[in-house]
Amino acid sequence: MIVGFNHNVTYRGVGFHVQTEDSGIKSPQLITLLYHGGTIISSQKTTYADIIKVDNLEQIVEELAKEQHKGMLRRLTGGEFDERIAQFGITLNPAAAKPVAPPEPEIKPETPVTPESVAVEDPVPPSPPLEKSPVDIPGSESVIIVEEPIIDKFRKTKTSNEPSLDELIYAYLTAGQ
Q1: What is the pTM (predicted TM-score) of this model?
Q2: Which of 4, 80, 100, 157 gives the lowest tally of CB atoms within 10 Å of its CB?
Q3: Is residue 106 in some structural domain?
């Protein structure tokens, strides 16, 4: 049994959550839900009772779950649920259809670097803000995935340029589109 997949996605300025879970051998089905603030916007259920005797069941179920999860993300970002979302009174921002990248900082190589011009880092950095990463899904509008912060009181917060686990999973799920 796979654990499942969860992603927070900002689509047209509004946050949504997509969750896919496997119910296990006793109830062989995959369920994907699209939420907004606790409200289920859409759901999709796939049963796999007809294949539970195959040798590599876990791999097959994981692939089915990935495809179903990606499909829900594609349907959301492709605008398929826009009318349903509006029925719940949720207003999508048409101006947020394509996120605008921040302007590139101006770099002047001729500016000399002196000890006074170098900022000194605080030994214990503050918790980083929520990371937002624009992601392009071919054939759909750009979306932003928001990583939920994990707070560990016993370890210092690391600042890194490495992609988050959610970004890696999302990139893996949407690869080859």
Answers
A1: 0.56
A2: 100
A3: no
**3-class state of residue 91 by DSSP:** coil
What 61-68 contacts at long range (C-beta under 8 Å, 24+ apart), as own/partner pairs, is 61/1, 61/2, 61/22, 61/30, 62/2, 64/30, 65/2, 65/4, 65/5, 65/20, 65/22, 65/30, 66/5, 66/173, 68/20, 68/30, 68/32, 68/44
**For 20-37, how does the pLDDT look when each residue is reduced to its tens digit (9 = 90+)?**
999 998 999 999 999 999
Identify each DSSP E strand in 26-171 by its residue range.
29-36, 39-47, 132-135, 143-146
Is residue 109 a part of any domain in this protein? no
Number of domains in the chain: 1
Quote the domain boundaries for residue 47.
Answer: 1-101+114-177
